[in-house]
Specification:
single chain, about 375 residues, alpha+beta, Type Iii Antifreeze Protein Isoform Hplc 12, five-stranded antiparallel beta sheet
Amino acid sequence: MRRGRILILFAMILLFGAVAGFLVLSRLGSGGSNAPSPETTQGPAFGGEAQIVIAAQDISRGAVIPLDGVILSPFPADFVVETMITDLNQVVGHRARMDIARGVPVTQNMVTEQSGDLLGTGSDASLAIPPGYTAITMPLDRFSSLGYALADGDSVDVIVNMLMIDIDPDFQTALPNATAILVGPDGAILTAVGANKATQNQGGTTAESQSPVPLGRVETDQTTGQQVFLIPNPAETQRPRLVSQRLIANARVLHVGEVKSESAQPTPVPDQGAGAPANQQAVAAVVKPPDLISLIVTPQDALAMEWALNAGANMTLTLRGPGDTTENTTSSVTLQFLIDNYDIAVPSKLPYGLEPRLKAPERSLESTMPGQSSATPSP
């Protein structure tokens, strides 16, 4: 009986030892599997290292690169491109064509031997101009800008308004010309005003036109009904004739106001001083509205706008809807066009009128056309 118990105890010891040994071996096996393998710790294999030139300090555009301004630094050979520089002699003593920050690899387009061959960074505005187009600036006010509603990126049409007059083709001056009367040695009238030849004889005075545009002309006397030779003189200077037409369609607004600064600059508030009353509040800063606008147009349209600006023509901008690229033709608008197409009646000459006499409607806005002033009722 005692011997059987000993055998059972011995068997249990062997069993516990086998279990303990299995656990130990399992722990050692799992630990080995979690350990990083040599392949994972080495990382990807490269084809060696190369030495490239990098900036050891910030180098300003146009500055001569000093010896301590650049260093050789190791770089994966597989990532070296042909524009990278591997020789300090190709950099030291040369000029930087652009600003080079510290730690940036120096490439061939960053340095030059000629001081005039500097690479400009350009403006941010030029990035918005597509190929084949250009930008031009025109004046802006509250009438031509929809009350300053225009913003960068809008699409607009440009309307031009011009005042036309008749001029002498040879003198290139406004008609009528200043003329004189020529008298012959015998006292006879040889020529009259406007290149009309007048002759005197027993039958009276006759007129003969020698010019396709004479100033003097034969008119009928309203009293007697007879034809007499009259030389009418203008009672006022020549009235210019207004014409309006769309000059440019679907131009893109590059910027409203000055490009390099904010389009609206607040004016500084004047200092009230130490003696100002305590209850006096500071006046709010006044925002100055923009007076310039830059448009993206074709080169030909830019020339047309330049001519109109130099000629003193008035231009107005009209706003298009987003994405609207509709192309439609327009007709030049004159007084005759309005009368013929908008059912405008020409007022009849009546023997009565209104008092006081008005030269223009009282609600008309101040004119922005060149040479015109605000319309006010005459006394």
